[in-house]
Design brief:
Length: 407
C-alpha cells in the first residue's frame, strides 16, 4: 500500500445512515490510487488478496467468493439466475422491505415464491419455519440477516440449523448486506450456502461492489444445472462468466469478462486489511488493530450505548425485543408529535446525517441510525458520542420550540 502520509479526508457531516457509512482515511486514500489496468501485474495480487481476506471475515475455508461491480442487489440476481430454475420453489423469511424485494427478484426469474412474514419488528417463529419446510420441497430459503428497513437481526445460526434438520437439501441463502463485518457470521460453522453483501456498509468501503460467497454445496447445485443443459437466467450475473475470473485472480493470473472496478478494489483491499488486522494496515505500529471478533464486540458495545441513550430520551425501538435488534444500526420511532421534518434537519445542522424510515406502512413514523465500521471501531473519532449528544440536543430543541409555539 502507498504511504498515507499527511492525507486526511475533507471535513464533512458525519454520515451515520445504515449505509453508505464513513470510510477510514486509509480506504479513501486507496480509492484515489492512480488509474491501473485490470490485468496489470500490480493489480492481480490485490484482487486475489481481496478474495482471500473476505473468507477471513466470514470464517470460511471453502466458500467461493464472487466480487463483481454492482450494488448489493446484484447478489439477489446471482442467486435467482444461477441457483433457481423457473418453476422451482423458494421460501422467503420476510422481516421487512428487503424480504419483499428479494421475493420480487426471485419471481422475476420465474421462481415460485412463498413468503413467511414476520410482524413489524419481529422474526418468523421457528416452528412456523419448520412447518413450512415440511409442507413443501424448497430449492432455496432466503432471509435478511439485518433488514435495513427495520433494524431486525435474524438468528442465522438457528435458521440454518432448522433447515438442515427439516429439509437438508434446501439451500440457505442469507442477505447480509447490512450485517457483514458488523455482526458475527460463521459461514462454515453455521453451514450456510450463500452470503451476499456489498462494500458500503460494515465492510467500510465506497459503494459499487457486489460481494457474494457460495458454499461448495451451492456451487454443486449450479454445476448440476449446467450439466442438465439449463442455462443461467442472466448474462451479467452468470457464474459461468464470473467463476473463471475469480479463480484466475486468486491463482495469480488475470482473466477478462467485464472490467472490475479497479480503484474500488484497491479501497476494498485497504478496508479488508484493517478488518482482518493485517499488521501492514495499522496506522500506528504501536497499537495493534482489533481482530474480527474484537470488532464484533465493539459493534455490540456501541449499539448498546446508542440504544440505551435513546431509551433514556424516551425513544422506542422498532425491534420488538432486544435480542432481535441489530448491532450495526438502530431503528427508532419518533416521539409523539415529532416528525422527520422536525428532527432530521436539526441533526443535520449539528453535522450528523441519519436516515428516515423505509418500510412503507410506517415510513413516516421512524428514523434509522447506522453505527458500524470506523465510527465504532476508532473511538478516537468520537462518533458515537456525537450521535448521542446531537440526538439529545435536537429533541430538547424540538420540545422547547413546540412549547413556545403552544403559548
Amino acid at each position: 500500500m502507498t504511504s498515507l502520509g499527511p492525507f486526511k479526508q475533507a471535513p464533512h457531516k458525519l454520515l451515520v445512515i445504515p449505509g453508505p457509512i464513513e470510510v477510514a482515511d486509509e480506504v479513501l486514500f486507496a480509492n484515489a490510487h492512480p488509474s491501473m489496468s485490470h490485468v496489470s501485474p500490480d493489480f492481480i495480487p490485490v484482487f486475489g488478496d481481496c478474495i482471500r481476506m473476505i473468507r477471513e471475515v466470514l470464517f470460511t475455508k471453502g466458500a467461493q467468493p464472487f466480487l463483481i461491480s454492482g450494488s448489493g442487489t446484484l447478489g439477489w440476481d446471482q442467486v435467482a439466475a444461477n441457483l433457481v430454475e423457473p418453476g422451482e420453489n423458494a421460501l422467503v423469511l420476510n422481516t421487512g422491505y428487503f424480504g419483499d424485494s428479494f421475493t420480487d427478484c426471485l419471481e422475476t426469474y420465474g421462481a415460485s415464491v412463498t413468503q413467511l412474514k414476520a410482524p413489524i419488528g419481529g422474526t418468523v417463529p421457528f416452528d412456523t419455519l419448520a412447518a413450512a419446510l415440511q409442507d413443501k420441497r424448497y430449492k432455496v430459503l432466503t432471509f435478511t440477516h439485518v433488514d435495513t428497513s427495520t433494524g431486525v437481526l435474524s438468528d442465522a445460526a438457528r435458521i440454518a440449523e432448522t433447515v438442515r434438520r427439516v429439509s437438508p437439501d434446501t439451500l440457505v441463502v442469507m442477505d447480509a448486506v447490512c450485517s457483514v463485518a458488523s455482526e458475527e457470521i460463521k459461514f462454515d460453522e453455521w453451514d450456510l450456502d450463500v452470503v451476499l453483501t456489498a462494500s458500503q456498509k460494515g465492510l467500510g468501503a465506497p459503494p459499487g461492489l457486489s460481494i457474494l460467497l457460495a458454499s461448495p454445496r451451492a456451487v454443486g447445485v449450479w454445476e448440476k444445472r449446467k450439466s442438465k443443459g439449463v442455462r443461467e437466467g442472466s448474462y451479467y450475473a452468470s457464474w459461468s462468466k464470473w467463476l473463471p475470473i475469480m479463480k484466475a485472480y486468486e491463482s495469480g493470473s488475470a482473466a477478462y469478462f467485464a472490467t472490475p472496478p479497479v480503484n474500488l478494489i484497491y479501497a476494498f483491499h485497504a478496508s479488508l486489511s484493517l478488518i482482518t488486522a493485517k499488521p501492514s494496515a495499522s496506522p500506528d505500529p504501536e497499537t495493534p488493530l482489533p481482530s474480527v471478533n474484537e470488532r464484533f464486540a465493539l459493534h455490540r458495545t456501541a449499539s448498546q450505548r446508542i440504544k440505551s441513550a435513546a431509551k433514556g430520551l424516551g425513544l422506542k425501538q422498532l425491534p420488538l425485543q432486544d435480542a432481535v435488534a441489530a448491532n450495526g444500526m438502530t431503528a427508532l420511532y419518533f416521539p409523539e408529535g415529532v416528525t422527520a421534518g422536525d428532527l432530521l434537519p436539526r441533526l443535520g445542522a449539528k453535522d450528523v446525517v441519519v436516515a428516515g424510515g423505509l418500510l412503507g406502512s410506517i415510513k413516516e413514523k421512524y428514523f434509522r441510525i447506522g453505527h458500524m465500521g470506523v465510527s465504532v471501531v476508532d473511538s478516537r473519532r468520537g462518533d458515537v458520542e456525537k450521535i448521542i449528544s446531537a440526538l439529545g440536543d435536537s429533541l430538547r430543541e424540538i420540545k422547547d420550540a413546540k412549547a413556545k409555539a403552544a403559548k
